[in-house]
Design a protein that fits this description.
The chain has 269 residues and is an alpha/beta fold. 35% of the residues lie in helices and 23% in strands. The chain has nine helices and ten strands. The strands form two sheets. Strands 6-7-8-3-9-10 form a six-stranded mixed β-sheet, sandwiched between helices. Strands 2-1-4-5 form a four-stranded antiparallel β-sheet, with helices on one face. Strand 7, helix 6 and strand 8 form a beta-alpha-beta unit. Helix 4 crosses helix 5 and helix 5 packs parallel to helix 6. 41% of the residues are buried. The site of adenosine-5'-triphosphate has 11 residues, from strand 2 and helix 1.
């Protein structure tokens, strides 16, 4: 792991550093086992699209990575450091809240419903977490917040409240909030599903730009064109297991699993 982390990112060589490794992740809600042993690796600059029908466990998987749900068993590592390990109480049953907050900030999540604070301006929304977690002086955090708002194209909305923005702008603010954490990886759970069709494009454009900048992303999406054109890897989940994974060409061009073929054939793109 250590040696790998010194290798510069070069997608053509496939030598990028391993950023996230998930090993045999299980999650049950009571008697219902939703995740049945998911293993996954993301390398620096990867954009991994996670596909699957409703109820297959996509959101639960992301929520476990972000520790919004506590996995039942398994192992999650970010840049080699444990995030969750059912074998180590410090990273499972006995974890402290400070550790959880720090780890979340390294792997923030962008939700379908934006989840911005309605009583804060856009700038305050973006500054809130870095002010708390990164422990930097206010003027530095404000500079950082403005730079990420510029990156997503809404710096001019800094003093507006979320309700004064369109859905697409709110989602871009949520992406800026994630970027402000200088994250190792960003998780997206259907970031465009709550948007009016005419607003989907502006959010996807921002995500494409981040992909070009080699921001590592895990994206649960029903946007098949995005998955096919932007991803480095596509993962198809079925009933809590990885049923198929590969490059977009492999998964879209010649899926091995019957279920994946059926899923793709019923999805228009
Ligand atoms: N907190 C919870 N308590 C009990 N069951 C849950 C909970 N969260 C999710 N589930 C169940 O876990 C299963 C997987 O749900 P999940 O939300 O992960 O699916 P999904 O793949 O994201 O679906 P969708 O495409 O509809 O968003 C479903 O059967 C769901 O009812
Ligand atoms: Mg979901």
């Amino acid at each position: 792991m250590q040696a790998q982390s010194q290798v510069a990112f070069d997608p053509s060589q496939g030598t990028a550093e391993t950023v996230l490794s998930v090993d045999n992740l299980h999650k049950s809600f009571g008697a219902l086992e939703v995740l049945k042993g998911i293993s996954l690796e993301a390398h620096k600059g990867d954009v991994i699209s996670i596909l699957g029908s409703s109820g297959s466990g996509k959101s639960t998987f992301l929520r476990c990575l972000n520790l919004l749900e506590t996995p039942s068993t398994g192992d999650i590592r970010l840049k080699g450091e444990p995030v969750f390990s059912s074998k180590d109480p410090k990273f499972s049953t006995k974890r402290d809240r400070g550790l959880t907050a720090r780890q979340r900030s390294r792997m923030p999540m962008v939700f379908q419903g934006f989840n911005l604070w309605s009583h804060m301006t856009i700038l305050q929304n973006v500054m809130a977490a870095p002010s708390k977690v990164l422990n930097r002086p206010a003027h530095e955090v404000e500079e950082l917040a403005m730079s990420v708002l510029e990156r997503v194209g809404i710096a001019n909305k800094r003093d507006m409240y979320p309700s004064q923005l369109s859905g697409g702008q709110q989602q871009r603010a949520a992406i800026a909030r994630a970027l402000a954490m200088k994250p190792t990886l960003i998780l997206f759970d259907e970031p465009t599903s709550a948007l009016d069709p005419e607003l989907v494009g502006e959010v996807l454009r921002v995500m494409r730009k981040l992909a070009e900048e080699h921001v590592t992303m895990l994206v649960v999406t029903h946007e098949m064109n995005f998955a096919r054109d932007v991803s480095t890897k596509v993962v198809f989940l079925h009933q809590g297991l990885v049923e198929e994974e590969g490059t977009p060409d492999e998964v879209f061009g010649s899926p091995k699993s019957q279920r994946c073929r059926e899923f793709l054939s019923t999805t228009s793109y």
